[in-house]
Design a protein that fits this description.
The complex is a heterotrimer. By secondary structure, chain A is of the alpha/beta class. Helix content of chain A is 34%, strand content 30%. Chain A has a single domain, classed as Rossmann fold (3-Layer(aba) Sandwich), CATH 3.40.50. In chain A, strands 5-6-7-3-8-9 form a six-stranded mixed sheet, sandwiched between helices. Chain A has a three-stranded antiparallel sheet with strand order 2-1-4, with helices on one face. In chain B, the strands form three sheets. Chain B has a five-stranded parallel sheet, sandwiched between helices. Chain B has a four-stranded parallel sheet with strand order 8-6-10-11, sandwiched between helices. In chain B, strands 7-9 form a two-stranded antiparallel sheet. The chains are: A alpha/beta, B alpha/beta, C mainly alpha. At the A-C interface, helix 2, strand 5 and helix 5 of A face helix 11 and helix 12 of C.
Chain lengths: 247, 262, 328
């Protein structure tokens, strides 16, 4: 098991943001975390990492910060690159948790850059890039951390279609290599196409957990997201397209 | 400056300047001087603290002074022009006395203040005694380097009373030789390089100040080990009063102790 | 990319340090000065070199280094190029602490009280600003908190100095606000340098964590950075370094603003590489300013902070202008 959450609850001032969530993610899984705005996806991810005070148990939060950094990488929703640093230097930050080994570091940085299609960008100044390019640099940073588990908060928001597909492919490849990925995603179609498993959250609780076709049901979509849509199985995989709001 | 003889002597005199405080205390009739400035009570500036205890103290503000109903106010030329102007516009006679910057002025000032107080004969006697004692003091031997050194590296240059006292008593004033006219700052390292034989410094005030830290600087301390420190009372150097003679006498004795064969 | 920035800066600092020793109101010959500096014999030249110019040069070096370093560290932590010990009120509260210890007589009774009180004053405002501006260090919150703290500390300092029985104390408000290295002695060096060194070591140790913070607080924490420990290091390090520097030299502004900004592009932007560079750059700036005040107005005790502000304030406006463009 790479991540186990038991009865995780997060209270924020007067309300409960995450309530009694239990979840187990194993090797080789690419879990899409779905839910409307404010459902508690970000809070769930941060609490799972131990970045927020919480009740219940997270197998990551009990680790020491150093051990956790080698167990899980995190891509926050807020994309921030504070200083005009080279792309390669940003990506190399992901190597911080690992005992210094320059050769290994360089290889991991190169791999991450290549995976995100950033090989030609390594000497560019990261802050001078477009928002989408910066997002890819930050994903590469998380990849360079080279952990068994990756938690990503809306990794594909704001990317162009090619970059979105490429990123989802990278995450699916990681899962195929035996790692685990949990990513919160608003694009239900991308989630349906790439994730091995979907977890749907509504008002801080898990309301569905399973294979994409079992989670993206008309009933759940209408109840949780207020939408109805089009399903089909194609040679490229399952397709889902939201078509209209239901209320 | 109004110097004309006054028909009737003033009856209520208020002094708002340290130097006129002291001259007035020495020259006025009993009861004629109503109030002196608070500076007269400061032992580091005033040579007449004990005498000043007997007087009402003022802080020099026009309102406070006016309510004392003076018919003469003695002020310095550097007293705030606003205060002087306000008092004059209220009909109070204000006499401004300039700070003395030469020994020759001292007698003049004594005569002036005495005349304003209506006692010209007392001023004449005081001035004559001062001038007589001064003329008895003559420098001996080659002048030796000396410096006045005060907080913030302040020193007395050419054209100051201190400069004249040093010259008169057989010293070369380092401040004047450094090219300073009037008061000014002398960097510590130039003082050190001038190798003074005598350093005149002030007594620190209570309460710390960075300005005075220079007086305990290790370089100055080392310099003083090789030099003579003149034991002077700062208050004696400030004003053109008979107390100034203490300063002149101390410096003359200090110079005599260094010997003629310099 | 591997420009030899640090060696070049080190050479510049060494040259300025030497110039600071050789330039002064008393015109001394080069050979004479050097032999006096290292010789043990008495005499006025030895006194000038060892007791007047040497402590001044050492303090210029150290004060500049800690100002540049703490500016770079605070900017790294807050991810805001406007953070600077002077602008956010650290220097003013340190001055308040120093003045309190002097005027209560504590410093006279116990020499270490002076740097310790300044350190305490600095710690209060660093902590206050870091907590008030929040981990995200919004520019507006930072500057406003700094203005409020500076104004309060400045007013209290003036009040205490005005109430002092010493007439000179009241005239020293400008010294505490503008800073000066004139007539400092070895006593001040021994009093301040250990604190500055200790604070600098703490700040230099934050480099890797500050690098990680470049990509945000959550990402840094997920990479194993302990934000609370980092904040504590920054508070204690800045307080010790800037507190001790203000205790002996007054508040010298803008060094921590200008130097990191100038050097950042030269070291590739990374906070860990900026820290040592900013220390050297700050030392160079203060040494150069202190030489300038002696050359421009040798007899006037021109305040150091006047010079750094003349350079720094337009810089600050320029930075604000650029940030305005980014935020609009």
């Amino acid at each position: 098991m790479t991540l186990t959450l038991q009865n995780l609850t997060v209270r924020r001032s007067d309300r409960v943001a995450v309530q009694d969530v239990s979840l187990t993610v194993g090797k080789g899984e690419f879990v899409g975390l779905l839910g409307p705005n404010g459902a508690g996806k970000t809070t769930l991810l941060r609490a799972a990492l131990g970045l927020l005070p919480h009740e219940g148990v997270s197998s990551l939060a009990v680790l020491s910060p150093a051990a956790r950094a080698r167990a899980a990488a995190f891509l926050p929703q807020t994309r921030e690159i504070a200083w005009p640093v080279r792309v390669a230097d940003v990506v190399a930050l992901g190597r911080a948790p690992h005992p210094a080994g320059r050769a290994g570091d360089a290889a991991a940085v190169d791999r991450a850059l290549t995976r995100m299609g950033l090989s030609d960008y390594r000497d560019r100044i990261a802050t001078a890039l477009s928002g989408g390019e910066q997002a890819r640099v930050l994903i590469a940073r998380a990849l360079a951390q080279d952990t068994p588990l990756l938690l990503a908060d809306e990794p594909v928001a704001g990317l162009d279609p090619a970059a979105q597909l490429r990123t989802m492919k990278v995450f699916a490849d990681l899962a195929n290599e035996g790692r685990s990925v949990i990513a919160s995603i608003h694009d239900l179609g991308l989630a349906a196409l790439h994730c091995t498993r979907l977890v749907m959250v509504e008002r801080g609780r898990i309301v569905a957990d399973g294979a994409p076709r079992d989670v993206l049901t008309d009933a759940l979509l209408a109840r949780v997201f207020d939408v109805r849509g089009f399903h089909a199985d194609t040679p490229d995989g399952p397709v889902f397209q939201p078509l209209a709001t239901v209320r | 400056m109004a110097g004309a003889a006054v028909a009737a002597p003033p009856e209520r005199v208020v002094s708002i300047n340290l130097c006129t405080d002291q001259l007035a205390m020495l020259l006025a009739d009993e009861g004629q001087l109503v109030s002196v400035s608070h500076m007269a009570l400061d032992p580091l500036s005033s040579a007449m603290v004990e005498e000043a205890q007997g007087y009402t103290v003022n802080r020099g503000g026009a309102e406070q002074v006016y309510l004392m109903h003076p018919d003469l106010v003695l002020a310095g030329t550097y007293t705030s022009p606003a205060t002087v102007g306000l008092l004059r516009s209220l009909g109070v006679r204000v006499v401004q006395v300039a700070p003395v910057d030469s020994l020759a002025d001292v007698g003049e000032q004594m005569r002036l203040v005495a005349a304003e107080l209506g006692h010209p004969e007392r001023g004449e006697a005081m001035a004559t005694a001062f001038e007589a004692e001064l003329s008895a003091i003559t420098a001996q031997g080659e002048p030796v380097p000396a410096a006045m050194y005060y907080p913030n590296g302040y020193t007395a240059g050419a054209g100051t009373l201190s400069d004249e006292i040093l010259t008169r008593t057989g010293f070369r004033n380092i401040g004047a030789e450094a090219g300073l006219t009037g008061g000014g700052t002398l960097p510590l390292e130039r003082l050190v390089m001038a190798e003074p034989r005598v350093i005149v410094t002030s007594t620190p005030y209570p309460g710390a100040s960075r300005s005075e830290e220079i007086l305990v600087h290790p370089a100055l301390a080392a310099l003083r080990e090789g030099a003579t420190s003149a034991q002077v009372r700062d208050a004696d150097w400030v004003c053109g009063t008979p107390h100034l003679m203490n300063a002149v006498r101390t410096m003359a004795q200090t110079r005599a102790a260094l010997g003629v064969a310099e | 990319m591997n420009r030899p920035v640090l060696p070049l800066l080190a050479i510049l600092v060494a040259l300025l340090f030497a110039a600071s020793l050789l330039i002064g109101p008393a015109a001394l010959g080069l050979r004479e000065s050097l032999s006096a500096l290292f010789g043990g014999q008495g005499g006025p030249v030895v006194l000038v070199m060892q007791e007047i110019r040497l402590p001044r040069a050492i303090l210029g070096l150290c004060v500049g280094a800690v100002l540049g370093l703490s500016g770079a560290a605070m900017q790294g932590f807050l991810r805001n190029p406007l953070a600077e010990p002077g602008l956010i009120g650290v220097s003013s509260t340190a001055a308040l602490g120093a003045v309190l210890s002097l005027q209560t007589g504590l410093a006279a009774a116990f020499a270490l009280a002076l740097p310790l009180a300044a350190l305490a004053g600095a710690a209060v405002s660093v902590a206050l600003v870091l907590w008030m501006a929040g981990p995200r260090g919004g520019a507006l919150a930072l500057i406003l908190a700094g203005i409020a703290i500076s104004a309060l500390a400045g007013a209290l300092t003036s009040l205490i100095l005005n109430l002092s029985p010493n007439p000179f104390a009241a005239m020293e408000i400008v010294y505490w606000m503008m800073g000066s290295l004139a007539d400092r002695s070895m006593t001040h060096v021994w009093l301040a340098v250990p604190f500055m060194a200790a604070g600098s070591l703490l700040l230099l140790a934050t480099g890797r964590s500050l690098d990680a913070l470049t990509v945000g607080e959550d990402a840094a924490r997920s990479m194993g950075v302990d934000i609370r420990r980092l904040r504590l290091l920054i508070v204690i390090g800045t307080a010790a370094a800037v507190g001790a520097s203000v205790a002996v030299a007054g508040a010298i502004g803008f060094v921590g603003l200008v130097i990191p900004h100038l050097l950042r592009p030269l070291v590739g932007g990374q906070p860990s590489r900026l820290l040592p560079a900013a220390a050297l750059g700050g030392a160079a700036m203060v040494l150069a300013s202190d030489i300038a005040v002696r050359v421009v107005a040798p007899d006037q005790d021109l305040k150091l902070g006047v010079l750094t502000a003349l350079v720094g304030a337009p810089f600050f406006l320029h930075l604000l202008w650029r940030m305005r463009g980014l935020e609009a």
